[in-house]
Here is the input.
Amino acid sequence: MILFFGTRPGKATTKTLSDITCPHCQQLSTLTAYSQPNYLHLFWIPIWTINTSRYAECSHCKRVYYKKEFSAEMERALK
Here is the structure.
């Protein structure tokens, strides 16, 4: 019997963080948060979510903030 298994990224979701200022350039409402799950799959069918990568990007200065760099303000806006 042959089993096909591995990992594959899922569909990315985006959310605009309105009324949040960028910590780097101090521009208001320029941050967009991205979230993309990574799945374990069997025969190309997703079974479990292994992890989810999250980051935010400022559309003005193009600075990227990873999950560990999120400010308390960003965390509250994502919940």
Notes: The first strand starts at residue 5 and ends at 9. Strands lie at 5-9, 13-17, 31-42, 45-58, 64-66. Residues 72-78 form the longest helix (7 residues).
